[in-house]
Specification:
The chain is mostly helical and 73 residues long. The chain is built from four helices and no strands. The termini are far apart.
Length: 73
């Protein structure tokens, strides 16, 4: 039984390992991720028209500025 458990955990460890190239990927600053879109949805929930556009534009601008300043440093 111990051998089966050890083999199972080793197999699970091998399957769950993420390659180092996945960590090396950096999304471009202008692209929105799923997390950004979800946050934008919560920020604009119930807003309409110009107020919604202003919030989305400001949030996008702030994200791009933060991202480019991180890339420069």
């Amino acid at each position: 039984m111990k051998k089966v458990a050890v083999v199972f955990f080793l197999f699970a460890l091998m399957l769950s390992a993420v390659s180092t190239s996945a960590y090396a990927y950096v999304a471009p600053c202008y692209k929105d991720t799923l997390i950004n879109k979800t946050g934008d949805w919560f920020a604009t929930f119930g807003k309409k028209g110009m107020a919604k556009k202003q919030i989305l534009t400001k949030r996008k601008y702030d994200r791009v500025v933060a991202c480019t300043s991180k890339k420069r440093a």
